[in-house]
Structures are given as C-alpha cells and as structure tokens.
Amino acid sequence: MAVKINTQTGMIEISNDVIATVVGGAVTDVFGIVGMASKKQIKDNITEILRKENYSRGVVVRQEENGIAVDVYTIISYGTKISEVSRNVQEKVKYNLETLLGVKANSVNVFVQGVRVLPD
Hints:
By secondary structure, the chain is of the alpha+beta class. It has helices spanning 16-28, 41-44, 82-101, and strands spanning 2-6, 11-15, 33-36, 59-64, 67-77, 105-116.
C-alpha cells in the first residue's frame, strides 16, 4: 500500500518503505532509544538492533481515512523513563511525517521490545 496525496499538478504516492525509513530515522534520533526491533522477532529470527536498511521490519504503517496509523517497535536504554521516551518518540515521528512528507499521523503506537544497557 501507498499513501496517495492529490495536488494541483497530479497525484503523489509515498510507499510504506519510505514512511518506515522516515519513522525509523526519527525514532533513532530520540534520546533513550537504543534502536529499532523487529515486530516479529521469533519469525524473523532477529534479536539484535535493526540497521537503517531494515527499519521497515520494525515499523507498521496502516492507512486510515484521513491519515495513517504507525506502530513502532523499539529497544530502550536502561535507566531512562519509558513513558517519557515513548512520548518523545510519538512527538518526533508525528512532526517528521508532517514536515518531511506532508502526511498526517493519526496515531503513533510505541511498543517496547526490550531494554538494553549501553556500554560505556
């Protein structure tokens, strides 16, 4: 699926992979986030942190009537407040989607797949 935006000069289609890359970049910039995790860790056999080329495995994009809904699967740093980090992720993802792509996110759901201690 792709998000379709009608403009004066034609239609713009933005694929879910592009949206997932923008969302993944926004999530990994937030303080307290160690990285992205796979939404299906057992099926994908991936227990490590996802790299930039695999962000689409840690993001689910669903089209809604007047925008999109995004699910983000994250790994959070030990010692940070999970609620604050999750709220910051929600705000950053919504802001980046609206400013970079012109897409309105109705909801951003943050799923914490694990907590890791960062090495010094």
